[in-house]
Structures are given as C-alpha cells and as structure tokens.
C-alpha cells in the first residue's frame, strides 16, 4: 500500500442565495428523562429531504483575522483589537482590547463569551513567546481583569462558568490551578480531597501544579443556567476514568463517574449550558445533565464535531456533514453540508441563522445549486476524518483491510484528501448502487465506522491502492 494513507485537506463552499432559510420548527421540549445511565441508539428514522447548507462569507469581515461568536442570540465579531455586533449587513463596533504586549507580537483575540449586552468578556494574549500573558478582560458591564500568565510563566485557560451574576474563570500555570471570580459576588466551591475520594498517593502526587491533592484534577469547569457548578476531569488521574464533581445549591459536592456512559471522550469534554438546570458534555455519545441526573443520549452516528444551543434552548450538533437537533428523545438531521467541514466556532442567532467561523465569519445558507442525485457524476463514499476520535475501536488500517475483501475491488479506489478544514479518507465508486454496496460492506466488517455517500470529488485527491495481499 502506498504511503500517505492518513493525509487530508481544507476547502471552502460559497453560497449564492440571498435569504436565509427559515429555521426548522422547534417542537416543545421533551419531558424530563428518567434517571438512567446509557440510552441505546434507536435507528435514525426515514428523513424527508433536508436542505444542503453552504458557507456564505460575511463580506464586511472577509479577513483571516476576524472571528465570530454567538452570545444569547447576538452575533459578536472581532477584527484585530475591535469587538462588535453584526447588525444587518454591517458591524456595530462597541469596544476593543488594549494595544499592549508588543514585545511578544502584539495582542490577538482568542475567544469571546458571556451574556449580551452587559456581560461580554474577551480572552486575548500575545501572539508569540512562552510567556504569552493570556488575559481576560470584561468588555461590557462591571468586572475584573485577569492575567494568568506573565513574562516568565506560560498559562492556560480551563473554562468559564456563569452562576447568575457571578462569573468564575479556571486557569493555570506552572505553579498550579486556580479559579477566579471576574464578575459578581465571590463564590467558593470546596473540592473533595484525594484521600477522601479514594485516590492513592502515587495517583495524585503533591506538586507545584497540584499543591492540594484533588480527587478530581479537572480540565474544564461549567455551570447550568440555574447555577449548578461542576468540574470535569479524570477521577484520581486514572486513564479512562471520566468523572464530574457537582456542587448543589448548598455548596456540597459529589463525584459522579461517567466513563461507563462514554465510548469516546473526544479530548477534553466541554460543558455546554442550556436553560434551567441543564447542560451537556461534548463526549461520544453526548452526556446530558438535568436536575441532578446524568444520562447518555443516543449516539448521533457520524463523528461529533461541535455542540451548540439555540436561543430557545434546543441542543444542536455538527456531526460528519450533518447538522442535527435533539428533541423527542432522538437526533433529527435538519441540514447537510456538501462535505464534512470543521468550524472554529458555531452558533445560532435569534433569527435561526447558523453562524460559523470558517476561514472568516460566515453564515450557512441553503444551496440552490446542488445536483439531484440522479444527475450526480461523482458518487463517493466518505469514510471519515483523520485522525480518528480518541478511543475509537477501529483504525483506517482496519477499514482498508476490510475493503480488500470487497467483491468489486478492482472498480473502487481509496482516496485521501484535504478539504473543509480537515484530513479525510473516502472511496471513489462508479455508481450509487456500488456506493451502497461499499457502505454495507464497511458496516458489516467495521461496526464502529459511519460511512456515508456523497456527490463529491476532492480537488486534490491522492489515490491509495487497495489490493488483496
């Protein structure tokens, strides 16, 4: 087999339509789920034809330095040191960060979050150097500036939690982790110590990073809209021991192990808050917390890329090339992308339009130019993005080995390519019937894979020979 099996690629889709499609109807939220551990995956029901969304750049900010973030339905954008809000086809600028740190390349905005309009916070840092001085500054409303790195020490951001008027930021540097209140009244959450949580001394040793041994050394923090605070990490630093520490309204915490619910934890799971006492973790399958109970949602199928919540509180996911909404106990595919893409940020505004940061701020518009299936001349089987999600039970070597037993092997070609911001692998086929046969063959031999058919031709394909040994 030729080298380079696991390479890949970046691409952009540009739309031609003028008006965004109406948002898919949002049904009434389902009743609270029963207390459960893992919910089995019902088969995805037959779907009506869904629209294909393409990326339409927001022309006033068609620059690689611009970012976009949706806060409470408001579309917040940045360019250089400025921060503004999209208003129609223009930007209303309302603030900017300091022009300092010139000795390390000047400042760069990395993320914007908070509440609109009186609680917008900006996370920025210098552009280069180890001591890049990561800093959080409140841009609107009242709050405190926080710098958690300096000239000599690097630093990192570990999440933000909003509990009513209080905003807590978790950060760290080489001297340890810390949680700081940057808005509102002080709130403290005493964690369970390592010895109380049954950890062995060698599992959580005392160090500069961990001067106090915690039962749950955390990577992320989060909070529900109702104010339940939690941290996310691995219990006692054990491998594959995903857990959360959850504080009730009286300030008492408990540790809940989640590893039995999770197949792939997808790096460091990010808490995504909803309305009321509800949030989700970006694991595979997605874990749902509501009013004290954790459960695993049905698997989506394609690999999860990103979660976001609509202004009305509906959970949405980008998985593979599909955009899904979760309601009535199942995932509903509401749109497709022309091919799988990776977005640096994603959210839905008050009008139901989905905004993304691709190469620059853009919105997703319904495409009018996609060929009908019977007009497609480039049938293609998309196998997946590389690298595979952490903990996947198969590899691309497994998939290639499975393809060597496909009956019409001489008629298909393995293709590796770069497109849509990621690295991918697929199979070029001669017809839709052959695409369906390849998909059935892969699913029969590689149960964890999620191939799907596309009308697609990579711009710069690299052919991978598939042959029987």
Q: What does this entry look like structurally?
A:
It is a single chain. The chain is mainly beta and 469 residues long. The protein has two domains: 12-21 and 40-366, 7 Propeller (Methylamine Dehydrogenase, Chain H), CATH 2.130.10; 373-464, 2-Layer Sandwich (Alpha-Beta Plaits). It has two helices and 33 strands. Strands 1, 29, 30, 31, 32 and 33 form a six-stranded mixed β-sheet that branches. It has a four-stranded antiparallel β-sheet with strand order 2-28-27-26, with no helix packed on it. The longest helix has 14 residues, at 432-445. It is globular and about 65 Å long. The N and C termini lie close together (10 Å). 41% of the residues are buried.
Keywords:
469 residues; mainly beta; Methylamine Dehydrogenase, Chain H; Alpha-Beta Plaits; four-stranded antiparallel β-sheet; 5% helix; globular
Number of helices, counting only DSSP H or I runs of 4 residues or more:
2
CA-to-CA gap between the ends?
10 Å
| CATH superfamily heading of the largest domain | YVTN repeat-like/Quinoprotein amine dehydrogenase
Low-confidence residue ranges: 1-46
Work out the number of β strands.
Answer: 33
């Amino acid at each position: 087999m030729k080298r380079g099996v696991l390479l890949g690629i970046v691409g952009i889709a540009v739309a031609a339509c003028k008006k965004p499609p109406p948002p898919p109807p949002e049904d009434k939220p389902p009743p609270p789920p029963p207390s459960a551990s893992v919910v089995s995956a019902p088969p995805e029901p037959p779907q009506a034809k869904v629209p294909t969304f393409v990326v339409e750049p927001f022309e006033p900010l068609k620059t690689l330095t611009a970012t976009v973030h949706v806060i409470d339905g408001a579309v917040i954008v940045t360019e250089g040191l400025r921060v503004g809000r999209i208003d129609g086809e223009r930007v209303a600028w309302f603030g900017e960060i300091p022009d300092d740190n010139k000795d390390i390349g000047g400042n760069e905005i990395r993320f914007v979050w908070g509440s609109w309009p009186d609680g917008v916070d900006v996370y920025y840092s210098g552009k280069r150097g180890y001591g890049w001085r990561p800093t959080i500054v409140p841009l609107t409303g009242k709050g405190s500036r926080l710098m958690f790195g300096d000239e000599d020490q690097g630093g990192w951001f570990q999440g933000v939690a909003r509990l009513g008027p209080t905003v807590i930021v978790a950060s760290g540097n080489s001297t340890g982790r810390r949680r700081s209140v940057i808005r509102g009244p002080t709130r403290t959450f005493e964690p369970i110590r390592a010895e109380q949580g049954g950890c062995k001394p060698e599992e959580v040793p005392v160090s500069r990073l961990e001067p106090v041994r915690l039962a749950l050394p955390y990577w992320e923090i989060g909070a529900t809209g109702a104010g339940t605070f939690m941290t996310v990490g691995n219990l006692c630093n054990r491998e594959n021991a995903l857990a959360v520490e959850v504080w009730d309204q009286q300030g008492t915490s408990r540790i809940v192990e989640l590893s039995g619910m999770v197949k792939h934890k997808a790096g460091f799971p990010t808490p995504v808050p909803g309305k009321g006492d509800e949030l989700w973790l970006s694991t595979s399958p997605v874990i749902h917390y509501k009013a004290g109970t954790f459960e695993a949602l049905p698997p989506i199928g394609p690999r999860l890329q990103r979660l976001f919540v609509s202004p009305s509180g509906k959970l949405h996911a980008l998985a593979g090339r599909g955009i899904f909404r979760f309601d009535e106990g199942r995932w509903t595919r509401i749109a497709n992308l022309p091919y799988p893409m990776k977005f640096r940020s994603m959210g839905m505004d008050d009008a139901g339009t989905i905004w993304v940061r691709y190469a620059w701020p853009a919105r997703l518009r319904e495409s009018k130019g996609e060929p009908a299936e019977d007009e497609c001349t480039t049938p293609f089987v998309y196998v997946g993005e590389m690298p595979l999600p952490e903990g996947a039970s198969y590899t691309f070597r497994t998939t290639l080995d499975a393809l060597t037993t496909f009956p019409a092997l001489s008629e298909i070609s393995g293709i590796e390519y770069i497109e849509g911001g990621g690295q991918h692998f697929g199979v070029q086929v001669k017809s839709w019937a052959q695409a369906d046969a390849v998909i059935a063959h892969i699913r029969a031999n590689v149960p964890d894979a999620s191939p799907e058919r596309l009308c697609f031709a990579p711009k710069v394909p690299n052919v991978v020979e598939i042959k029987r040994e």
